[in-house]
Amino acid sequence: MLIVWSQGFDIGHADIDDDHRVVVDIINNLNDSHGDAALVSWALSGLDRYVRRHFAREEALMRAGHYPDLEAHVALHGEFRRQITELRDRWEHKRVPVIEAETLLILAHWWMTHIRHEDPKYVPWVIAPVSVRRLDAA
Ligand SMILES: [Fe+2]
Fold first, then answer.
1. Any idea what DSSP says for residue 68?
2. First CA to last CA distance, the chain
3. Cα three-residue angle 72-128-130, rounded to 5 degrees
4. What DSSP state is assigned to residue 117?
């Protein structure tokens, strides 16, 4: 297991937190694949699909909450999606026989940094009631 989930990683939105945990599970599955090519292919396509769905969900929430740094956050999502697409591409064309430990560490580090330091920034716009936000902004 590469990442051990802690409740401290929750941002307080049930659907988003579930998504974050699923992606952690998939990264752990990749780490535990031990050369099982079918498992790697399955996990990589799941990661790609799930991350796209999750980012779309998050971006819709940020847009609905009028999060002011939406564009910068969307750009970060694009960066991670590109990393996954490139990894999948390299895997499917067998330019890599296994997923290197270093590659997984980079993915895991990106994901955990994002959910611990970037996602909490939108929480006041997405979770707090509008009236509270207005008071904060006043
Ligand atoms: Fe995010």
1. T
2. 46
3. 95
4. I
Residue 50: phi and psi, rounded to 5, are -70, -40
pLDDT digits (tens, 9 = 90+) for 18-35: 999 999 999 999 999 988
Helix (H), strand (E) counts: the chain: 6, 0
Cα of 97 from ligand 1 centre, angstroms: 30
CA distance to 18, 51, 124, 125, per residue, from 3 (Å) = 15, 17, 27, 28
Task: Name residue, tokens 């940020």.
Answer: 62
pTM for the model: 0.89
CATH architecture of 13-137: Up-down Bundle (1.20)
From the CA of 100, how far away is ligand 1's center (Å)? 25
Residue type, 16: I
Ligand 1 centre to CA of 92 (Å) is 27
Domain boundaries, the chain: 13-137
- Kindly indicate the confidence band of residue 107, based on its pLDDT and cuts at 50, 70 and 90: very high
Environment of ion ligand 1 (residues, CB < 5 A): 58, 119
| Cβ-based burial of 126 (10 A; exposed 0-12, middle 13-18, buried ≥19) | buried
